[in-house]
Automatic annotation (TrEMBL):
PANTHER family: CYSTATHIONINE BETA-SYNTHASE. It comes from Quercus rubra. SUPFAM superfamilies: Tryptophan synthase beta subunit-like PLP-dependent enzymes. It comes from the Eukaryota. This is Tryptophan synthase beta chain-like PALP domain-containing protein. InterPro entries: Cys_Synth/Cystath_Beta-Synth, TrpB-like_PALP_sf. Gene3D superfamilies: 3.40.50.1100.
Length: 100
């Protein structure tokens, strides 16, 4: 492990704030697992044809969790922004050998 928050999810789990977050205002954070990100990415690929990277898959995990914990219910929508693909991480995140 490189640090206490080592993860296969690119860009997540680092123990520092990058410069672009120094002035950001946010209302919370959550903990997710690598397994949740992997399962979500494969679910979205299989069921929706979305080829997402690990951090975007985690973004979707958070959207689902939010809808459940806030009891959003039928007739409402939860939106998340998907702005990338997994093409640059094929050798890791979508590799069964690497994941094992």
């Amino acid at each position: 492990m490189k640090n206490p928050f080592d993860t296969i999810t690119e860009g997540l789990g680092i123990n520092r704030l990058s410069q672009n977050f120094m002035t950001a205002k946010f209302d919370g954070a959550f903990k997710g697992t690598d397994l949740e990100a992997v399962e979500m990415s494969w679910f979205l690929l299989k069921n929706d044809g979305l080829f997402l990277g690990s951090s975007l898959a985690m973004n979707c995990v958070r959207a689902i969790r939010h809808s459940v914990t806030q009891s959003i219910g039928p007739g409402h929508s939860v939106v998340t922004i998907i702005c990338d693909t997994e093409i640059s991480h094929l050798s890791k995140f979508y590799s069964a050998e690497y994941l094992s």
